[in-house]
Amino acid sequence: MKRYSAFAIAREAARYHSGWERAWRSPEPKRKYDVIIVGAGGHGLATAYYLGKNFGITNVAVIEKGWLGGGNTGRNTTIIRSNYLQDPSAAIYEKSRSLYETMSQDLNYNVMFSPRGVIMLAQTHHEVRGYQRTAHANALQGVTTEFITPQKVKELVPIINLAGPRYPVLGGLWQARGGTARHDAVAWGYARACSDMGMDIIQKCEVTGVRRDGGRVAGVDTTKGPIDCDKLGIVVAGHSGVLADMAGFRLPIESVALQALVSEPIKPCMDVVVMANTVHGYMSQSDKGEMVIGGGADGYNNYTQRGSFHHIEETVRALIETFPMVSRLKMLRQWGGIVDMTGDRSPILSKTPVDGVFINCGWGTGGFKAIPGSGWGMAELIAKGRSPLTDAFSLDRFKEGRFIDESVAAGVAH
Amino acid sequence: MSTRLASGGRLIDRSKQVQFTFNGKQMRGHAGDTLASALLANDQMMVGRSFKYHRPRGIVASGAEEPNALINMGEGARFEPNQRATTTELFNGLVAQSQNHWPSLEFDIGAVNTYFSRFLPAGFYYKMFMYPRAFWKHVYEPFIRQSAGLGRAPKQRDQDTYEHFYHFADLVVIGGGVAGLQAALAAATAGQSVLVIEQTADWGGRAPVDGVADDSTIDGMDADAWVAQAVAKLDAMDNVTMRTRTMGAGVYDHGYLLAYERLRDHAPEAKGPRHRLWRIRTKQIVTATGAIERPLSFAGNDLPGVMLAAALRDYVVNYGVSTGDRTVVVTNNDDAYRTAIVLKQAGLEVPVIIDARPEGGGALMAKARDMGIRVDTGRAIAKVKGGKRVTGVQICAQAGEGSVLEEIPCDAVAMSGGWSPVVHLWSHCGGKLIWDDAQAHFRPDPSRPPTGASGEGFVIAAGSANGALALDAALADATAAGVAAARAAGGTPDDAPPPKADALGEAALAPVWMMPQGANIKLRMKSWLDFQNDVKVSDVQLAAHEGFESVEHAKRYTTLGMATDQGKLSNINGLAILSDALGQPIPVTGTTTFRPPYTPISMGAIAGEARGEIFQPLRRTPMHDWHDANGADWEPVGHWRRPYAFVRNGETVNEAVMREVRNTREKLGLLDASTLGKLIVKGPDAGRFLDMMYTNMMSTLKPGKCRYGLMCSENGFLSDDGVVARIDDDTWLCHTTTGGADRIHAHMEEWLQTEWWDWKVYVANVTEQLAQVAVVGPNARKLLEKLGGMDVSREALGFMEWADGTLGGFDARVYRISFSGELSYEVAVPASQGRAFWDKLMEAGKEFGVMPYGTEALHIMRAEKGFIMIGDETDGTVIPQDLGLDWALSKKKEDYLGKRAQQRSHMTDPNRWKLVGLETVDGSVLPDGAYALGNGVNENGQKVMIGRVTSTYHSPTLNRGIAMGLVLHGPDRMGEVLDFPGTDGKTYKAKIVSAVFYDPEGEKQNV
């Protein structure tokens, strides 16, 4: 793989960029792989990448129904933070955040991780107490967060309205090392690195069945024919239930459409990411200048990757209340992605009732920030049979009542 | 130069002058102008800078598809960035400023990027700026952010208002061109309700402009006359509603349509809302949304002065404005000839029409030639010359590689690459497209429309939006669409023939995606696809070369079509280039997804009226105003505001809280408890129902008695609590927490409606029907006895009993319950009497030392008694057993919500954290939310925690810090001291004690 750098660009400019390599190969599937990952989104690609990097397992195929990074990886609002309350969450999200810090250098692909800081606004006394609790927990978990005053919030976010008539800003939970990254680049960077390790990324190839031999996985049927494997990782977010059904087990997952929208681009006016959970709205400004806005999830299960309008309206109301200048901006585009929600709104990274089949799903509305940590833990789980990062997220927990509920500190889980 | 012609302009009123400024310069236009036409009339060709390279940008279109002419508009509270000049109607006093340059439009430092453009191809930023790591945040990114963005950020609060409008129609026709009007005429004969909307201020669309070149007629009239009579006919029909300045913004599931009406953008000083968002439910939608002309990809096609051929024609015909004195027309189809003809008719020069087709065109070409215009066929533009404005074009053979045959001076170029139907609204909700080879465009596939709940299609495309580009074809198609839509909506429209159109026929177009066909890399690097985002032919080719083969990858890698015009001009050209690079047919490549809105709509309109005070309704108790006038420090609780404390002059909030607690414990306190949820549960099965809802047995409660009840979620977690009173045989009144009233009401309804739909139970939320006051303290009974009217003695009204009666002349229901540990009554009176009753209590209570108290005093007093608070001791992960509330879990009942869940292994785990009291060793107050530290770290390197603080206060009663918390094996570790590290760097030491700090025997409340 030719490395990317300013020098490489200068070299290629001289020959009108005719010498660039493909970012990833586009191979036909082999007959058999050690590991097949279904789903070439961020989580699937990261799983493959760390299988190769950490465990030397490179006879791997990543199979994708559409185009890589085309699901929630390419549809989210790119927020990265790890200020979670519960130990297992803080562990995997903080691992993830720390991997994001060095991802561009690790992958030799600029994913534009930007530690611009994330504020979660406290707008009720209940939220104040919740975030103070989170700050205490984070200190013991090794996550650097701080509960800050309204004045500090205003310094960080000059466009905010502290004294809204409805929900005054009473403070905020501040994670200075949280931020955003370029979502597509994360998928592309991992894909390029996986391809470079000899892994096959097979796009436009839909899995149509999971083949079993006794209680054990034997391979998958696809629109490009059957492919054998020793181990199978299902990492398909919104369609996890469909894949699990093929493999012969059920998941405690509901799939709903989550909305997002962007404004037209404007000159920089907000450097940090702000989440206002009481009023249900969050916003950051992309490097292009668009205000990137996260909305709510539809109240009904479906697979259409479209946005409905009602949540957009609620979200925009909340944001105008929090940032009055937003009223004078325009919505450029709205879209939806299918998120897979578990009962406790925490993910599932687990063995399954089928030997050799592993599942990574249930990231719900907050999966992007977890991509590298999830891939790291999932790779270990597949390679070694268990991982301290994923133990708590096993499927058993729903039987045992061992929930990992993050909604306790704030109104919104992610 | 561009200028106002001496005559012409069907949309302007030359008798009315309009003043405006552009970059501080005074300019003049006419009523009826758009900002774009007025700028051109003032020879303001360059109006902005592009996003990436800061290249000079001129107006390129005349409508919603404009990517370049975006301006900072207005001032102060009416300032708005990125306003499209082509859709901005001119008004007196309009203030416009160009965007994305520093220090000025003419001289922009950022334009240096264009000289480095060779080093800044598609996706360059993914390949660099990685080292050293810290530079991204501190050097590269701030620079990129500053040079990106377009308009300035608004600073002030918007002073305009917005509104939502709900509308129901059998049919909606989107687009008020001749196709839309004809579709409406055809459909409206069925008598169903029809809404016709048009995004511009004028009916008629393109036909009146095109007709000038053709001398075309519809039913023997010129297009303007036909439009006028069609509008008059529709206006006269009772079942038809017509709106201009109203854009179809988005189509959603099940026939939900969003329309965006710009009421005051053209008259900002007029009264009323600025925008109105129409939320429409309809059975059938006809999209007569027209088509958009495609640019041609030749080197220098982005220079100011290069314009879409039809736009250039629009400016002449509609506004009497010429873009240049000498205009070269370049085309691959017949329509652009109309521009040449119109220009010539207006007395302007057209030195040459460059037609890429070897054989040229049909009747329109003949007409142009007859007018003396030179037509070169099989030719192309090799390159446009000029810097901030076109100065000439170099002509080459289309079939070649760009060898220059001739150079022709000119100051404008009119380009046409053919027309693409506007398929956005068709596609928003899943309508599919097919590729039309003959016309080289995607058009709606009538066999795969967006489908509604019935599985039937609910959108029909009409006219040029359906690919019927010629006038006669468009009218015939629109007639059929109108009839089909009315039928699909259940009507019986008349079968009338379409109007007869007489226009010049057109010869076939030849697809031209690159000009010349074999353009070398130097030309391709100068051939723009996306003018705003600076995406060139070479960029898309690079994306394909690097493996970004999916149209979505290519889009995201190059940013093609991601600008504020969302690719209205660039998408088809870009994916044709991509398809060519991949060696596959265009339909195999497909399109990116069309997302709402069609063009950007204001956030203000989306939010509508809901802002400021009415963002969310503030709920007020009947006593709200009294509290406000008496020092209430407000706390938002749900949609309510509750007094946190009543602060007196010279007192801090905390001092007020301490005073309120002491006064209540020693004398008499009043709490406005009206916000507590009050649900009436009634019916023959109400007892059985409540037995399922609560962990306690409620069916056996005797009328006249109260019981403290717990509610759990299906997962066993404690979700709400409150006192339940049995009113009569089949009626219970359930109190909930303030925040829980609506949630619990919905929870009950959900179970009744989905699981126990056959149970005879009704639930009514009467929270707002009753004002409720807690009368608390040793003097509580004295106060009620002074009011008189009913017996509230210990004997007549025992603890956990209630009675109806009158108090001081008020109808009252009195509950003998206590959340403070003191002698306490909660008195409910009709809400309308609440304030009077409160006043009476305050007045009569003077002699007993009455004071109101707020939520914080309430919290402290309940914590002193060890009573749990939902939301403090519970957080959705806590079960009653954790809180020592086993006594409230009925053993007699077979089932209740949460019972089975509470039997799961993790719920019965002896290692669950349990409720205890915590006392700091030094009497200080434990920090809220602090965790107790255990030994060592876990496998993930996190410090082990063995408990946490759930409530913590300074108790004025005990004059020390008290807290409640959940601790591992807590109840077995009484007396043990735990470490609680604070976020302030200190470690707090606290001893495990009983959670009941005050009056453990309960003597005070039971007197």
Structure description:
- The complex is a heterodimer of chains A (414) and B (1007).
- Helix content of chain A is 29%, strand content 26%.
- Chain A has 11 helices and 18 strands.
- The radius of gyration of chain A is 21 Å and the shape is globular.
- By secondary structure, chain B is α+β, with helices and mostly antiparallel strands.
- In chain B, the strands form 14 sheets. In chain B, strands 9, 10, 12, 13, 14, 15 and 29 form a 7-stranded mixed beta sheet that branches.
- The radius of gyration of chain B is 38 Å and the shape is elongated.
- Chains A and B meet through helix 1, helix 3, helix 5, helix 7 and helix 9 of A and strand 7, helix 3, helix 4, helix 14 and helix 15 of B.
The number of helical elements of chain A comes to 11
Q: How many distinct beta strands of chain A?
A: 18
Structural class of the secondary elements of chain A? Answer: alpha/beta
Largest sheet data of chain B:
7 strands, mixed
Can you tell me the CATH architecture of the largest domain in chain B?
3-Layer(bba) Sandwich
Q: Would you tell me which CATH topology of the largest domain in chain B applies? A: FAD/NAD(P)-binding domain
Shape of chain A: globular
- Percent helix of chain A, as a range, is 25-40%
The biggest chain-chain interface is:
A-B, 122 and 116 residues
Low-pLDDT runs of 5+ residues of chain A are 410-414
Shape summary of chain B: elongated
Helical segment count of chain B:
25
Report the uncertain regions of chain B: none
**In the CATH hierarchy, what is the class of the largest domain in chain B?**
Alpha Beta
Sheet with the most strands of chain A?
Answer: 8 strands, mixed
